# Entry
Amino acid sequence: MAMFATLLGPVLVIAGFALYMASNTQLGRFRRMPWEFLAVSAAGVLHALGYFVTHPDVSTATAAATSVALGGFLGWFFFSFSMYGAREERPRVGDRFPDFILPASDGGVFDFAAARGHRHLLIFYRGSW
# Structure
């Protein structure tokens, strides 16, 4: 039972990140801030620290340090890298739409540069097929 309680913190931290990645890749569920996954990871860090305070030992200290390090990495990943990091230059209102060539639904090719001068409704969606 003591080994389970010792490893529960790092496992929860890893589980929070794994659930986040699984929901993105398998369910196509993208959001700006994944609060529930952060909560699972934070619960793992808090459990590891709390268990270390109540049961000071080398293994609980290692589990707590691992949980804090993984939690710090996840905090950096969620807040700095994936959610609020620097992004590519985005077009502004009034900018000319960039030229592109894409396959058309009728089997041909749609060339946006060749279709200039006409009004178009462009719908981009992420399909999963």
